[in-house]
Fold:
Amino acid sequence: MKLYLIRHAESYGNIKGKIISTTDFELTEKGIVQSQRIGQKICSELKEKPISAYCSSLARARQTLVEILRCIGQENIEIIETDFLKEMDLGLLEGMTWEERRQKYPEVDLDKKLSLLQAPYGESFQDVKNRCKMFAEEYLEKEADEKSIIIVSHGITLRILTNYLLKRPDEDVNFLNWMENTALTELISEKESHTYQLVRLNDYSHLRELQTVGYDKWGLFATRDYWAK
Structure:
């Protein structure tokens, strides 16, 4: 079984310059094109193949998935939306600028201390990890081995889900960079050992001119290569 973990495309929330988690925004025009790009990237691997499709219950994730499925000619398959894949609820941080967050909650580090995160009046790292565990148990473990699984979710949740599925220590999530819009992380399941192997991580090579401005400065923060165990 192959897993294609994909972050949603650019939404109107992404261009506000503020922290957005559970507020529901639709995709920008650029986001729609980004979705088509990742669909084209994986089309040859998934066209006419048995697949299952999951996404967060937020609009930006579903819209991204709809565009991907259209590009690979699988627009008629069922899309399963689940709150298990929603973005971490960031509580009082919601709607703040990143500078306001640094001033009011300097102890909250969404980058390098994600494993210790407790959002004020929001979710903790452990809360989201538990959601990822429930998603794996309720859905992934029931999927057939020959299936390819597309999962569209969000920046923080995908970092936690990736780390959980790879059975890495919690603190290793702190070495996962922010995933770019429509970035692809691919895992292959090892049935006998009940584990996953990492094939591609945060691959956004398809974006080219559609890459988020400044991503290489704020998004790539990890001080250690996540591939290194």
